[in-house]
Every structure is written in structure tokens, then in C-alpha cells.
Inverse folding.
């Protein structure tokens, strides 16, 4: 009888121990699940402006994909996120500490709306209503200096004109050395108003140019 009683007592104690362990395990699993659901990947949460609305942001539009390629080089070098200007909200533009903007040139010789992209409407329908006085802006452009030597990156010049008209301060002017164009509306006082790239004739130089430009912007206190 003693052996039977001892055996039953042991079974009861073992059963209680198993139940306690099961409760602890369930609690740990639930806690881990709640923690996982609350955690957000930094990469995913930074998909728009890089870090927050108080950061640099890149805005471009593209016809053939060349300007998007350059925007990607700039994004990689700077850590900022690149977005199509056609998708921009007013708060994203006004909320950024500094803007990097870029466009291709499609309508050569035009006085305005030279890019043939979303910029053409945005510059004249949206930009005039935004308060951007003192905003830091850096400009990049894409063009074909061999086929359109007289109009190289003209749309970048249009970005310059419209943003400076709103009181923005432009950073990142660059030398015209190493280019084969004849004329450009993206030049001021013998310099380009930003980074100019030619994915048709000098595509192998674009990434290095973008890296050097971002380094220049950092030195100028843009970021």
C-alpha cells in the first residue's frame, strides 16, 4: 500500500510540474509574439524619406528610366530614399529639411515644361502653393550631350529657376569640365547648377559623379 501511495503522490507531483512548465512556455511564446508584432524593420519604416520628415529626400521623374537610375546612385550614396515627384504629398516636400530634385530633358528648346514628365505639371500647379523659403535644394539632371548638344539638361535649369523663385537655396554647383555639350540652360556663371549626367554617352561615369557630388554636398553642409 505504501508503494502504491508513493507512486500516486509522485504522479500527482509530476503532473503539477508539467502543467506549470506548459503555462510558462505558453507565456513565453505569447510574449515573443507580441514583441515581434510591435517591432518594425527600420528599412521598411524608412521607405519614403530615408529617416523621417526631418530628413533629406530625393524627388525625380523619368521618361526612359535614366533619371531613375541616377536617383538610385544618389540614394545609395546619401542614404536618402528616392521617390517619383508624381507621388509626393505637400507635407513630404515641406517637411523635408533638404530636397534633392532631378529631371530629364525631353522638350528641347521649350521655355517651360521641358522634362516631359510629372514635373511639368507639378512645377506650375503645386510648387507655387508651397512655403519653401530658405529650403535647401540640390538639383540633378539627365541629358544627351551628343544628340542634343545645344539643350543639354535644360530641364534641370527649369528646376533651378522655379525653386529659387520660391526662396530655396541651391547647393552642389559643379564644373562643366569633362562634358561635350555646346549649350545648356542648366548653367549659371560658368557652372552647372547641380549634378548633370549623360546615360547615353557617359553612363560609365554617372555613379562616380553621383558619389563625388554627395561628398561635395556633405562638405557644403547640405545634409
Amino acid at each position: 500500500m505504501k508503494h502504491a501511495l508513493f507512486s500516486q503522490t509522485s504522479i500527482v507531483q509530476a503532473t503539477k510540474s508539467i502543467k506549470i512548465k506548459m503555462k510558462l512556455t505558453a507565456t513565453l511564446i505569447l510574449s515573443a509574439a507580441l514583441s515581434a508584432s510591435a517591432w518594425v524593420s527600420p528599412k521598411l519604416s524608412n521607405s519614403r524619406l530615408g529617416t523621417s520628415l526631418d530628413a533629406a529626400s530625393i524627388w525625380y521623374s523619368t521618361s526612359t528610366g535614366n533619371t531613375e537610375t541616377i536617383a538610385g546612385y544618389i540614394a545609395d550614396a546619401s542614404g536618402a530614399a528616392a521617390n517619383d515627384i508624381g507621388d509626393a504629398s505637400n507635407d513630404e516636400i515641406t517637411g523635408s529639411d533638404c530636397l534633392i530634385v532631378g529631371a530629364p530633358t525631353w522638350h528641347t528648346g521649350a521655355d517651360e515644361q521641358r522634362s516631359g514628365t510629372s514635373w511639368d505639371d507639378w512645377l506650375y500647379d503645386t510648387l507655387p502653393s508651397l512655403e519653401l523659403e530658405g529650403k535647401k535644394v540640390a538639383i540633378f539632371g539627365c541629358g544627351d550631350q551628343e544628340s542634343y548638344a545645344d539643350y543639354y539638361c535644360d530641364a534641370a535649369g527649369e528646376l533651378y529657376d522655379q525653386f529659387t523663385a520660391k526662396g530655396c537655396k541651391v547647393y552642389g554647383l559643379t564644373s562643366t569640365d569633362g562634358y561635350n555639350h555646346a549649350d545648356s540652360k542648366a548653367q549659371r556663371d560658368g557652372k552647372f547648377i547641380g549634378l548633370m549626367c549623360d546615360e547615353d554617352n557617359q553612363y560609365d561615369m554617372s555613379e562616380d559623379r553621383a558619389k563625388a557630388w554627395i561628398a561635395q554636398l556633405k562638405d557644403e553642409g547640405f545634409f
